[in-house]
Amino acid sequence: MVRGTSTLDVGKASGGQLPADPTEAYARWADVTKWASAQRDEAFTSTLDPDELYAPSPAPPQVFVLGLNYRSHAEELGWGVPDVPMVFTKFPSSVTGPGAEVEITGPKVDWEVELVVVIGKGGHHIAAADAWDAVAGFTVGQDVSDRDVQIRPQDNPQHGLGKSFKGFSPIGPVLATMDEVGDPHDLGLRCWVNGELVQDGRTDDFVFPIPFLIEYLSNVVTLLPGDLIFTGTPSGVGIGRKPPRFLSPGDEVRSEIDGIGEMVTKFVPRP
């Protein structure tokens, strides 16, 4: 747990009654949050070292991604706003934490800052009216994409494969709960490449709101504790620019969302 610049080890402070492993903690999220609310500030005795933070859900069972879920992004690509959610998956092995070094896999590696929903209780056939009960919290994400692999072949894109190289799903720096975030549909999110602001959007541009997405997904699959839902990206991605612009070794991408924080991802050469 993080409060300000101090931390508390949940496993140790609870005397082993609660799991230290984040994935196990999501499966007992009601117990964790009840215990957490009773902890006094003086219990937080360790100083936060941001470099020690890793992905808030380091081993998600499932990773879902929404395409074209911002009107501005659909417009910049010249595609229509979808009538139903455009959903694909990323492989969980692509997940990494803030401060990660990610290999450039080709000449068309792109950035996409996203609000990521982390599932707590989960379930099957979750009604939109009950969707927030299934959510543990939110974190910052980058849906890094190798556009060559993603759009190969042109008439049958492989979205999941092109977005699942090692490190292509950095998330962090923390999981922020609903009371910390406020309205998830009114958050600013931004992305900088080497200090230049390239994305500056708000989640009020969503095509499909989060409760609708949870109902939609859970009517097909069972959402599991620790699952991630990347909710889409606003305009400003590299492939939508004229001319297109992509990442190179040595580039640094900073991603930030109101109420959650920021993370930095560094891109390095591929051996």
Question: Can you offer a commentary on this structure?
Answer:
- With 271 residues, the chain is an alpha+beta fold.
- The protein folds into 2 domains: 48 residues, no CATH class; 215 residues, Fumarylacetoacetate hydrolase, domain 2, CATH 3.90.850.10.
- The chain is 17% helix and 28% strand.
- The strands form 4 sheets. A 7-stranded mixed beta sheet has the order 5-4-15-9-10-12-6. A 5-stranded mixed beta sheet has the order 7-17-16-13-14, with no helix packed on it.
- The radius of gyration is 18 Å and the shape is globular.
Residue windows where pLDDT falls under 50 for at least 5 positions:
none
The largest β sheet comes out as: 7 strands, mixed
- Do you know the CATH topology of the largest domain? Fumarylacetoacetate hydrolase, domain 2
Instruction: Report the sheet-strand fraction.
Output: 25-35%
